[in-house]
Write a structure and sequence with these properties.
This protein is mainly α. The chain has 13 helices and 2 strands; from the N terminus they run H-H-H-H-H-H-H-E-E-H-H-H-H-H-H. Strand 1 and strand 2 (157-159) form a beta hairpin. Mean pLDDT is 93; it is low at 1-9.
């Protein structure tokens, strides 16, 4: 590429990257974190309305600004996701789910809420499929379980089936430390936690699937063509980390842990071209989290 062509392409590339980051952050938990934690304001349905307005504005901009047109489908899909969450929030209040969740133990309402989150996830998938993408385009296949994987920070490669157990150990140790400090589990409740394992297994399979599709599969499929795989990995990991500020693990340390995990899980999508390894690793770690939720009361 000539210097002249590079000079012409760089501003356009920068605008696409900026627009992609704007869309990802506008629909992430960043606005609720600032509202509820930074400004000490109570949660509000208007936050969903604001987020929907922002992503619809970005969609309108992508339709009218030539350099942002590669992000049109991304913004369209993100708008259906936010709209889905807005419908869910209104439905939860009308049906009394919010009142029930306020008094129910975490190990009951968290699985119930995770099941409800399938709704906006399905909306994202349907919108992308309607636009012409295939299941394989959206990583909704197992992928190559023996795919090559570059070891971060090195020029060496390994295979995904060889690094699964080391990755679990790598994330499990800091997760156990964080959960122990934050949730202060009552080990006398271990028997109860084990008795609730069937519920826990059902929860983690659904939760890992909907989160992998919502945070990674669909966004990476839409981000990779316009901004590249590396940028897509960082963007989705950021959204995944922010999404756990009020979750499990929670707070700043929870964000850091899930951001780091998000980098590796997104890397699994890019390298294997499927969701099997990311889903399996995510589900295992979620099962550990579920046991701690039960023991925390």
């Amino acid at each position: 590429m000539s210097d002249t062509a590079l000079a012409r392409s760089t501003p356009s590339r920068s605008r696409v990257l900026f627009g992609a980051w704007a869309g990802v952050l506008a629909t992430s938990a960043l606005i609720p974190i600032v509202w509820r934690t930074g400004l000490s304001r109570p949660d509000s349905t208007w936050l969903d309305v604001v987020q929907l307005g922002l992503v619809l504005a970005l969609l309108a901009g992508a339709r009218s600004i030539r350099s942002l047109r590669p992000l049109t489908l991304l913004f369209a899909v993100l708008s259906t996701q936010v709209a889905g969450f807005l419908v869910l929030r209104l439905g939860e209040r009308i049906s009394g789910f919010s009142a029930w969740a306020a008094s129910a133990p975490d190990y009951l309402w968290i699985p119930a809420q995770s099941a409800l989150f399938v709704f906006p996830t399905v909306l994202m998938v349907v919108t992308a499929l309607a636009a012409g993408l295939t299941r394989r385009d959206l990583f909704l296949v197992a992928g190559d379980l023996r795919a090559r994987s570059r070891i971060p920070g090195t020029a060496r490669f390994t295979r995904w089936h060889r690094q699964a157990l080391p990755l679990i150990a790598l994330f499990l140790v800091p997760l156990l430390i964080q959960l122990t400090i934050v949730s202060r589990p009552d080990l006398s409740q271990l028997g109860k936690a084990l008795a609730l394992l069937p519920l826990g297994v059902g929860f983690v399979l659904v939760n890992a699937a909907q989160e992998e599709i919502r945070f990674r599969a669909v966004p990476i499929a839409l981000l990779e063509p316009p901004v590249g795989a590396e940028a897509a990995i960082w963007m989705t990991a950021t959204a995944f980390g922010l999404g756990h500020w009020f979750g499990h693990p929670s707070g700043p340390t929870g964000v850091l842990l899930t951001f780091a995990a998000g980098l590796m899980l997104a890397k699994a999508f890019v390298e294997t071209r499927g969701l099997a390894w990311a889903w399996a690793l995510h589900a295992f770690l979620d099962l550990v989290i579920f046991l701690f939720i039960v023991m925390a009361g």
